[in-house]
Amino acid sequence: MTAAPPWREITPDDYHHARAFRDLDPIQAWIAQEGIVKDLLQGQLDGAHRLRLVLREAVDLKPHTKPDPRWFFSYDVGASMISMAEEIVIEFRIGRREVVMMPRGPDYQPRGAGWAGGRR
Predict the structure, then answer these.
(1) Which domain of life is it from (predicted)?
(2) How far apart are the first and last CA of the chain?
(3) Fewer beta carbons under 10 A from the terminal one: N or C of the chain?
């Protein structure tokens, strides 16, 4: 039996163009963000690590009038391909974490996709 690769927890601060590359102009920052995300996902594919994207309600929730903290798409995650991380977790203000169910593979259920806990 082979051991699973270790988890690598990341937050949008690790790659997001507006946070990680403040000294670059917006287009260069976006390109740099895409490169980092590609490298992270390639490491996951190569078996070097399993990515766990942690979205923090207190930091990453978009400033809408009525954001839903349980919905993945209410968060500013930067590059859309980061949603291919093996696990996506929402960390609520109270410290509790819930895994987000994302539409992947033949067994995904369209109802509840993108919601923490799989339900609204």
Answers:
(1) Bacteria
(2) 37
(3) N
Sequence length of the chain is 120
For residue 80, give the 3-state DSSP assignment: helix
Contact residues for 39 (Cβ-Cβ < 8 A; gap 6+): none
Q: What are the residue ranges of helices labelled H in the chain?
A: 17-20, 26-45, 57-60
- Per-residue tokens: 31: 């390109």
Read off the pLDDT of residues 81-113 as tens digits, 9 standing for 90 and up.
888 999 999 999 999 999 998 776 666 555 566
Q: CB under 8 Å to 49, separation ≥6 — which residues?
A: 5, 6, 7, 8, 43
Query: For residue 98, what is the enclosing H or E element?
Result: strand 97-99
